[in-house]
Amino acid sequence: MAVPPGPRESPSQGKSPSLVAIKSRSPMMKPLVPSHEQPASAPANALKDKQAYKSVDPDILANAISKLDVIRSIPAPLSTVPSPSASVAPSGPSSPRLFGMGPTGSQTVGPTMTDKPPGQDGRMSAPGTPHFGAQTEMLRTLDESTRVIRQSSKAPSKAPSVSGIGTVVEKPDYSEAKIVVAMVGLPARGKSYLSNKLMRYLRWLEYNVEVFNVGQLRRSKARSALQAGEGKVDHSATYFSHSNTEAMQRREKLAEESLESLIDWLKKEGNVGIMDATNSTIDRREKIRERIDKEPGLQLLYLESFCDDPVVIAANIALKVQSGDPDYQGMSRLDAEKDFRKRIAQYDAVYQTITEPNISFCRILNVGQRVTINRIQGYLQSRIAFYLMNLHLKSRCIYLSRHGESMYNVEGKIGGDSDLSPRGWDYALALPDLIKNNIGDKPLEVWTSTLQRTQQTASFLPFEKKTWKSLDELDAGVCDGMTYEEIEQMYPEDYESRDEDKFNYRYRGGESYRDVVVRLEPVIMELERQDNILIIAHQAILRCLYAYFQALPQQELPYINIPLHTLIKITPMAYGCHEERYPLPIAAVDTHRPRPSKGKNTVAGSVAEPDFIPDLNVKRDYYGDGQKGVGMGLKPEVIAQALKNEVEQGKLLPKVAQGDLHHE
């Protein structure tokens, strides 16, 4: 591994190059007064303070902090890796520089790490980002000056520009967003799958979303009637026949009741209410539109899931009859499947696909093969449509791994762009075999951040690699390169504020978890388009991605346990994601900080055995009360193999090509 050279000598004749840089960068600013000089206009009683402290004018300090925050927001080129120990190059009036920035905003290149391809010594020093942190001379000066001003100021209150190192970010106001998403489609076409995917995505973005499933309401009422001694309600295929007038009236009443519950919830607190029902006729959809039009401020978006691929339909039917549906309690698998196909035929006899030109709709063919949108209105509807355009049903796995243990991990520091520790390199060497044992001969793409510890971890993997700036670790701003103990000692109020609201707390010049979620949204969009992906990133980044896949709330997100030297395998399924964890026997420090004891304690995530476990969160909730179906606990690959056998036997006819145009 290449070792960065030491810092260059600065010919600034004893003066701090950082102070010279500020003076030359902004002529309108008064020069910082060295501690040994006394300005003529200073009051006499300030002399003692100046002899005891290095003091700065508050206006100058606020201006310097503002400059610093602006400079931090400028992205640096990825072709250089400035050494953390490199000093700022000398600057003068003809070539002003501030914190390593050139006159045109370009990064001043100091000593760099020598890059080597992973074929020479295997320890590739990848391109990274410039190192800004509280250990730099200027930031230490600013922090010390802030402390002095707070202690010596005679003002009745602190200057707002220098009070604390961070802020608590407020949640965006989504109160005006009120949308009804009405599902359309035959049974076993993936409506519930799309409803739940959309709900998890929008909740991850902090919209208040609920799914109102008419089938859940029907089963719940039937269960209540049975418990009240009114007898069992027949929900066989004949119940869903449109020639069964009595049953049809009951189903219409259930649909209306579900819609009214959705509207009441939207008017009180919600942003997006999803009506999960067939809504299979123009007449039924027109009734929904007329009801929504009576409510000012509510928008209506239809979402149709149209599927004519027999393999996909067969998979959905198999999932339905094997997942513990109470409609088929006590029936054999073959009898349940036969009855369910009859139910589909009853709906298919009257089904009318969406063709109404005057309504807003999004029509998805075979869950991602083709998407048609019409009259999409507003920002949130556009966001929903774009998300749905990126979904697919292909079987795949998402692998999540933190980088190997880094030197900063060992030292207890946050942020930075440090190398891997020796144990981190051991993990990088062991990771390829673990991945190959899981993925086999299937294709895989590896995503890393621009920081060298993730790229070093991926350097031995024989797969295509892509680098994402969006996957860089949460920016700790002025606390970059510090330990939590140092932060607690230097900024006790901010340390406490972050513990109280870790998701919303933003470091000065840095980010909050909320900011990270926003910048990861494009990554989520691209993830939904991909097949098998391995993401090697950082603790905060993987917490945000993990919370998306496992539908965890924002309050829990900053405390998710993502240990070092552990591979997490996530398999998307119909009603959630199945998870497996593979901890490698390579020691590493524990960087997980649980929720403070004064708050609500969160149990650290347990490590699952590397075997299939029928997780509760991947089972369907048939009653809407959190009681999931027990199901048969079959692996997805078992169902896939059974369908493959049926195709080979001629029982199923797969689509000729996924990209073929669909003629309706």
UniProtKB/TrEMBL annotation:
Residue ranges crossing the lipid bilayer per the database entry: none
EC class (word): hydrolase
Gene3D superfamilies for the chain: P-loop containing nucleotide triphosphate hydrolases (3.40.50.300), Phosphoglycerate mutase-like (3.40.50.1240)
One GO MF term attached to the UniProt entry: fructose-2,6-bisphosphate 2-phosphatase activity
Compositionally biased intervals (Low complexity): 78-96
One example of a Gene Ontology biological process annotation: fructose 2,6-bisphosphate metabolic process
Domain 6-phosphofructo-2-kinase: 173-394
Documented EC number(s): 3.1.3.46
Keyword Heme: no
Pfam families: 6PF2K, His_Phos_1
Keywords for the protein's UniProt record, in alphabetical order: ATP-binding, Hydrolase, Nucleotide-binding
GO cellular component: cytosol
Source organism superkingdom: Eukaryota
Residue span of region Disordered: 1-50, 78-109
UniProt feature coiled coil, ranges: none
PANTHER family registered for this protein in UniProt: 6-PHOSPHOFRUCTO 2-KINASE_FRUCTOSE 2,6-BISPHOSPHATASE LONG FORM, 6-PHOSPHOFRUCTO-2-KINASE/FRUCTOSE-2,6-BISPHOSPHATASE
Family indicated by similarity: In the C-terminal section; belongs to the phosphoglycerate mutase family.
Protein's recorded name: fructose-2,6-bisphosphate 2-phosphatase
Species whose genome carries this gene: Cryptococcus depauperatus CBS 7841
